[in-house]
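Review form for a predicted model. The reviewer records the input and the model, then writes brief findings.
Reviewer: anonymous (R2)
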Amino acid sequence: MSGARYLAAATPLRLGSGGAAVAIPILSVEVLNDVALGGLLVAASLAPAVVAAPLVGAALDRTRHPRSLIAAAGAISALGFAGAALLGILPTAVVAVGLIAAGAAGPFFLGGLSSFVTDEIPAERRAYALDALSYNLGSVGGPALVAVTTAFGSARAAMAAMAVIALLGVAGLFLTTLRPRPSTGSSIWRTMGDGLRHIVRHRPLAVVTASGTLSQLGGGALPVAAVVLALDRTREANDGAVIVAAFAIGGLVGALATAARPGRLRPELSMGIGFTVIGLLLLGAARDGGLWWTVVLVGIAGLFTASSAAAMLLLRKQQSPASLRGQVFTVGAGLRATAAAAGAACAAATVGWGGTVQFLGIGAIWVLSGALLALYPRNTESIDG
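Model under review:
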């Protein structure tokens, strides 16, 4: 039951966040006929995360009431999403401020909550497999729910639904048991500095962070490159959505399988092999074998994302002392979000190169991120505690 309680909290919070990023630009077009404004509002909801992450992590590492702090962050996000649902009714500046606040609160449950998962689910591999499942459910379920709601209702209704779902996650948090970290007696700024130094100087963690961040350059570029590849080969932009959906569905199937039966490989091997296999399959998908060749290979690649993510989360936990764990998770998540945004920007800037070249580049990035795990020191012991 502990796994169900954790999922009841984590999944709605992450689903609301994932769906909002899709609903905001649709709502901007629907209400104001302004695509550019939608993009700016999405950026406003995402950009604060990497800046806020170290402070959020330090706060979680010091607070005596982590559950209440994460619940407050979830409520702030829900309020920001509710404000965004009133775009065109409220002043745009008010909507933007609400989304900035939601973005700053995001690291509490996108990264921060992951640092407490073993409080709720003691078996580490199962804990991080379920955590990876909650991320996949959010990244697939959120956009899917937005698509259904906008098809049968409106983008305003979809945005309001994301706010309600986030509040359900807040309620779910009070079913969990999140224990405070051991007190260090240091100031919050000293705690934050100690956490950042540990991420950079502790070689096993530095390797994991670098690999995980680099992989998201490819992850962020994939949706754009899929559309470009579809236009090159079928002249239909909608086929790009089919390619992206295949990757997402593969990720969800892989997450369910990993949650049902967590792997037994050493986590650094699981992460490295998973990233490498994803890269090789995407390199194969660059070959012009028809749309379904690409869809099948991309879908198979998606199967390996959850096991890799679960291994990465486990390594973060094993290679961080309890007093700094919140920062390790929030900063790692913030770096990955920033890398994904940079990957999307790079793909947009290289549209003229064609989808084949972009897919080759994305595959190479994932292979390189997997190869980085070869630098992980052998016989490294867990330092968590």
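Findings: The chain is about 75% helix and 0% strand.
Further findings: The CA atoms of residues 200 and 206 lie 5 Å apart.
Recommendation: see findings above.
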